[in-house]
Each structure stands twice: as C-alpha cells, then as structure tokens.
Amino acid sequence: MKTAIKLVVPVVVILLTAFHSNVSVQQSTPWVAPSSADTIQNPLKNNPAAVTEGKKLYDKYCWTCHGKSGKGDGPGAKTLNPKPADHTSPVVQNQSDGAIWWKISKGRGQMSPYEKSLNKNQRWQLVCYIRSMAATQQTK
Ligand code: HEC
Fold first, then answer.
1. Average pLDDT rounded to a whole number, residues 89-110
2. Which atom of ligand 1 is nearest to the CA of 110?
3. Is the pLDDT of residue 106 over 90?
C-alpha cells in the first residue's frame, strides 16, 4: 500500500504541473519564431504581383480570424484565446519576413500550420500582403 502511494503522488504532481504550464502557455506566452527563421530570405521581396496574389489567398484562408484589414477582428476571432495577431501592428511588422513566413508555416494553437496546404511561394505571397497592410496604415 505504501509503495502504491509513493508511486501515485509523483505521477499526480507531474500531471498537474504539465496541465498547468500548458494552460499558461496558451494564455500569455508571446509567440517568438526561432532566430534561425530571421535568416530565411523572402524571394518575392518588393514584388507587387506577390502582394496581389497574397491578398487573394488571404481573402480565402485568413480573414475569418485575422479580419479583412488584418486587425485580428474577423468573425472567427471572438472565441479564440490567444486572439489572432493584428497584422498592422508593430508587434507583427517589426518581425523579419522569415519569422512571419515561419509562423505561417508552423502555426501554433488555433493558428493552423500552412506548410502542407500552401506551397512555399504562396506563403511568401502572404508575407508580402501582410507587409502591405502596414504600409496602408502608415499613409493614413
Ligand atoms: C482559425 C483562426 C485563424 C486562421 C484561419 C488563421 N489564423 Fe493566423 N493566427 C490565429 C491565432 C489565434 C494566432 C495567434 C496564435 C498564438 O499567438 O498562439 C495567429 C497568429 C498568426 C501570425 C503570427 C503573428 C504574431 O504573433 O507574430 C501570423 C503571421 C498569422 N497568424 C498569419 C495567418 C495567415 C497568413 C493565415 C491564412 C493563411 C492565418 N493566419 C489564418 C488564428 C488564425
């Protein structure tokens, strides 16, 4: 009997700790791409056609959560925690193209990984379109 308790207690402690840390990760940890992502070069940089193509993809796959203008206020965002990122904000815009591309590829939580459903080029087109969202904001 004593041996059983000695075994059960640590298991319960481990389970509780794992559950607790999992919950707090979802609520508060900022999402940071690995620094290696910063070295991935955008092959479509300053390519206006890529922005147009990126918008088409965005209007199909992304706006429901991120909102039509990228502010994170799409109809699907209401129940999400953490909320989808505001693509017009410095939090997103100050990241490298490679970091944004990496996040679209890998996903986290409610944000699906798109590396299988969208090809490399399509993911870069989305990065170009996300960049253009900030540019629109600044000229206002
Ligand atoms: C089901 C809702 C949903 C859809 C659809 C969705 N996202 Fe997201 N996205 C999220 C959420 C939620 C986060 C925040 C995730 C986190 O911080 O854990 C996020 C985060 C991001 C980020 C990271 C921003 C940052 O914090 O640095 C990028 C970039 C992004 N999404 C791009 C896209 C693109 C591009 C698409 C379409 C191909 C897309 N998302 C589709 C919900 C969604």
1. 96
2. 12
3. yes
